[in-house]
Design brief:
Elements: H1 14-25, E1 42-43, E2 72-82, H2 95-115, E3 122-132, H3 144-154, H4 162-176, E4 181-188, E5 204-207, E6 212-216, H5 227-238, E7 255-256, E8 261-262, H6 282-288, H7 293-298, E9 316-323, E10 333-341, E11 356-363, E12 369-371, E13 382-388, E14 394-404, E15 413-419, E16 429-431, E17 435-436, E18 440-446, E19 452-456, E20 467-468, E21 472-476, E22 482-491, E23 501-507, E24 513-521, E25 524-532, E26 538-544, E27 554-555, E28 559-562, E29 568-575, E30 584-588
Parallel strand pairs: 1-5, 2-3, 2-4, 4-6, 17-23, 24-30
Antiparallel strand pairs: 5-6, 7-8, 9-10, 10-13, 11-12, 11-14, 14-15, 16-18, 18-21, 19-20, 19-22, 22-23, 24-25, 25-28, 26-27, 26-29, 29-30
The structure holds zinc ion.
The site of zinc ion has 6 residues, from α5.
Length: 599
């Protein structure tokens, strides 16, 4: 079910452009209504091809560069630089000018990130100067294909038409930056022109839901200093929001965006609401941080069930598996896929950004164990699975589940399977310290003679090699304090691998920090310690009169009655991982809380 049927090029609204000022000034408003020179700035790509083949797939396809505004967004700013090949080059970028524009685009995107906290937006902004044989600012919208297509070709992107080039450029950027969405902002040099506009009056426009936006360096009558609000408005179009100012003539019922939300705040047909909004009045709404509910909905920013997750990312994964029943002497194979189930889109293609983060299995009701993905890394909305199950002889129940980026877990799929001709499960055991104050720690192993072992912090063991399973094995944790998950699996002399063992160890190399003081209370001397540790608990302390002499360790107490009599003592603290702090001096403080009688 493609929505190409309703894709109509709205450049007919160029007519309204000529009337823009007049139409705007007569709109009654609940806020100071400026005369907006923006007009016909929201466009739709006239032709989309190959939509049907993708329609039911949750993986965002090439024609969905920016379906809803959430997650990681790669934005590439393209400064088009004429090189005189086809037309005289009359404008040249300066580096300071480009730096200023980049800064204002970045500010506009941060405005969105701050407005939409539930979208967990992260913008990855890159920029480049791209040559074109044309001088873009001398062109009309009707000839943008010339300079946009030429610039994209200089970026190494070839396709039958410039829209397909732009979609391909977005897709390449999305893959390169490992982003959920991608878009391009073409910046055209209008320096020195009388109006800061293209020949036909345009100065900023965008295609709804992508693939790109165009802006002149002067943003027409707004001026370079107002680039941020204008880019913020155009960016709304890129992610599905449509115009609300009267001159755009958008019907109240016009639906847009992934969730097909109607434009109920349109001023064109007296829809009934006049909320301040970035899609209505860029300058005023940008300053007021205003976005109305219909624009938010068109961007996908709606939480229908109020569970804190926006509808387009409130999704659950699903497993589609086949388990081969084993023949004697062979282990069963599991194959199939784990994929996220996209939130329904009433008007268009499905898309989800909730990647599969893991698939797990458990044998006979045991612990959940990581199942490797076919390509070695869980990073996609759809992941292929193809693995041998490490089962030994006997009847088994094997259950599977998949987890996505928001932590939603699929329905459990389980199978009964009988294995024979493999042999009984060997007696494998492994343990690790629950805490370590060095990267290197000793694993205690127990395995039949001749067994091999692999240890890794990667559940797919892609970086691990087989070593003999000796009784103790030195293992180096990765170089980061905090909790580490360590996976261990064995292999017998016949080459049969065991299921993995999953161990957790806290790496803490930071000693406790804090301060100590001596206080006199009712002629008793108290040692008070205020201290904390980064990853574990403080569990012991030493008290001494000499910083160079260690006393005996005793359990940590934040407040201790001391029998020693001195004005200075020294305290060392030890955390549960064994890290010891340098000696801290505790000096006798004046007991400031003793009431002083005033006559
Ligand atoms: Zn607009």
């Amino acid at each position: 079910m493609g929505f190409s049927v309703k894709l109509t090029l709205v450049c007919v609204l160029l007519i309204a452009f000529l009337l823009g000022y007049n139409i705007f000034t007569v709109v009654p408003s609940i806020y100071a209504q400026p005369a907006s020179p923006l007009s016909s700035d929201a466009l739709r790509v006239p032709v989309r091809t190959r939509v049907a083949a993708y329609a039911d797939d949750a993986v965002p396809n090439e024609y969905q560069p920016s379906a809803f505004l959430a997650g990681n967004v790669a934005v590439q700013v393209v400064f088009v630089e004429s090189n005189g090949q086809y037309e005289p080059s009359t404008h040249d970028w300066t580096s300071s000018q480009m730096a200023q524009i980049r800064q204002r685009i970045s500010t506009a995107l941060q405005w969105w990130a701050a407005r939409l906290p539930q979208a967990q937006l992260h913008f990855d902004i890159t920029s480049q100067v791209v040559p074109s044989g044309y001088e873009p600012v001398t062109h009309d919208l009707s000839t943008e294909s010339l300079w946009v297509g030429d610039a994209l070709q200089h970026m190494g992107i070839n396709a039958p038409n410039y829209f397909d080039q732009a979609y391909a450029a977005d897709e390449a950027l999305r893959r390169e930056r490992k982003a959920d969405w991608a878009t391009h902002i073409f910046v055209v040099n209008s320096t020195g022109t009388a109006t800061g506009r293209f020949a036909d009056g345009h100065f900023a426009y965008a295609y709804i839901n992508g693939p790109f936006m165009v802006i002149t360096s002067d943003a027409g009558p707004y001026g370079t200093s107002q680039l941020s609000p204008i880019v913020a408005h155009e960016f709304g179009h890129i992610f599905g929001a449509v115009d609300q100012y009267a001159a755009a003539a958008v019907p109240c019922t016009e639906q847009s965006g992934y969730l097909a939300v109607p434009t109920t705040n349109s001023q064109a047909n007296n829809c009934g609401t006049q909320y301040n909004s970035i899609m209505l009045d860029p300058i005023g709404a940008y300053a007021a941080n205003a976005i109305d509910a219909s624009a938010l909905g068109q961007l996908g920013y709606r939480d229908s069930n109020s569970n804190g997750l926006l509808d387009p990312i409130d999704t659950t994964p699903l497993l589609q598996l086949q388990l081969s029943q084993a023949t004697s002497g062979a282990r069963p194979l599991v194959s199939g896929q784990a994929f996220d189930q996209a939130y329904p889109s009433p008007g268009g293609d499905l898309a989800s950004i909730n990647t599969i983060t893991k698939v797990e299995y458990r044998i006979d009701g045991g612990a959940w164990l990581p199942l490797p993905t076919a390509d070695g890394v869980y990073d996609a909305v759809s992941e292929k699975l193809n693995a041998t199950l490490p089962l030994y002889d006997g009847p088994h129940n094997v259950a599977f589940r998949a987890t996505n980026r928001i932590g939603a877990i699929s329905p459990i799929v389980s199978y009964n399977v009988a294995v024979s001709g493999i042999g009984a499960a060997p007696s494998y055991q492994v343990s690790a310290p629950t805490m370590s104050n060095t990267q290197h720690m000793m694993l205690a192993l127990n395995a039949p003679a001749g067994a091999g072992v692999q240890v890794s912090e990667n559940p797919a063991f892609t970086d691990a090699s087989w070593v003999p399973a000796s009784a103790s094995l030195d293992w180096a944790l990765s170089n980061l304090d905090g909790e580490h998950t360590v996976y261990v699996r064995f292999r017998d002399t016949a080459g049969l691998e065991s299921p993995p063992f999953v161990l957790t160890t806290m790496l803490d190399r930071t000693p406790p920090a804090g301060r100590a003081m001596l206080l006199k209370r009712s002629n008793s001397l108290w040692l008070e310690i205020q201290a904390q540790d980064s990853e574990s608990q403080i569990d012991a302390m030493q008290i001494s009169l000499d910083p160079n002499t260690a006393g005996s360790w005793q359990p940590f107490q934040p407040s201790t009655l001391v029998s020693l009599q001195a004005n200075t003592m020294y305290v060392r603290l030890r955390d549960a991982a064994g890290n010891v702090s340098p000696p801290m001096s505790a000096m006798l403080e004046m007991p400031v809380w003793v009431p002083i009688a005033v006559r």
